[in-house]
Amino acid sequence: MNTLNIKKKIEFDTLTVVLIGSEVVEPDNVLAFNKDGKLLWKINDILKIKNPTGMIDIIKKTNAILSVVSDLSIQYDIELSSLKIVDKFYLR
Which residue of 5, 23, 50, 70 has the smallest Cβ count within 10 Å? Predict the structure, then answer.
């Protein structure tokens, strides 16, 4: 059985972003919730990857920028107000 749990949680002014972890890396495993607990988006709503991979880390770069790192070692910097990718680079 594949157990899901919150691997990491980051608080921003208007939302909370969580990284869901499990024994295997699940696709679309970064979720954002408003302060009332309502789901706002999943990471693939922003990245729009045809074959989504899982994320292995989330980083609060600033109060406006969230970084997510994929299991393929690609880091995406996302501007939270517009939900646009502002930078993308390979960590290897």
Answer: 50
> How far, in Å, are 2, 11, 44, 73, 75 from residue 78 at the CA level?
29, 15, 12, 16, 10
CA 1 – CA 11 distance, rounded (Å): 30
Q: What share of the chain is helix, strand, coil (3-state, %, to 5)?
A: 5, 50, 40
Q: How would you write the pLDDT of the chain (92 residues) with one tens digit per residue? A: 567 799 999 999 999 999 998 887 788 999 999 999 999 999 999 999 888 789 999 999 999 999 999 999 999 999 999 999 999 999 87
Q: Class for domain 5-90, per CATH?
A: mainly beta
Q: Domain coordinates of the chain in residue numbers? A: 5-90
